[in-house]
Amino acid sequence: MRRTRVGIIGVVVAAALVLTGCAAEPAPTRAPSPPATPVETPTPTPSADPLASVDALVVRPTVLELRAGEEVVETLDYMSEPAAAVATLTELFGRPPVDEEYDGGNHRPDGIFHAWGDFVLDERFYDEERRQRDGYDWLVWPRFAVYFDGPAAEGIALRAHDGSQAGEAWSALAERPSFDPELWVCVGTSIEAETIEVPDDRADRVNVVATEDEEDGTVRWIGAPEMEAEGCA
């Protein structure tokens, strides 16, 4: 009996050792995954308004330049639609213009002066049907012209390409190389000319002109476009 009991005890102990050995090797556990990092969508930044940098209007023979320093930000062609030009300038100056209608005469149609202080855009109501029929282009019938009656408007400088400004001494203007009293125009004196392609029987230069205030010897106004002419009626 003793022998049998010892054998039973041995079996029990052996079984316990086997179970103990199994418990000593626990199943591996998976480490928790780190939380996912959210992907941030970049917020689009509004593009800067290019007109906000404009600090000068520069009158040229065929276009009005809107400049930031010496960089040309935008140009307004005198044969472009006046409404679009007025909209651009309204945005630039931050307010609509003061409008003044006028009656035309023998040499020009009715129109509207759109004024922001000393800057004036002269919208001209030429007959568009006749323009198309007779082949008139901007050399004869510009859709608008511009005038600078002073050196600045609403904080924006007004000048010609050579730096000339309304209000300065006429004698100083006359010393500049671009001043050309020999180039015949019907209004004022040419201070910048641009040669363009036109039919043989037409003048070929368009100009920025300046007029003199003879009372005080200053530049009364600067404007464009004005065509070279063989004579004035």
Automatic annotation (TrEMBL):
<feature type="region of interest" description="Disordered">
    <location>
        <begin position="25"/>
        <end position="52"/>
    </location>
</feature>
<protein>
    <submittedName>
        <fullName>Uncharacterized protein</fullName>
    </submittedName>
</protein>
<feature type="compositionally biased region" description="Pro residues">
    <location>
        <begin position="29"/>
        <end position="47"/>
    </location>
</feature>
<feature type="signal peptide">
    <location>
        <begin position="1"/>
        <end position="23"/>
    </location>
</feature>
<keyword id="KW-0732">Signal</keyword>
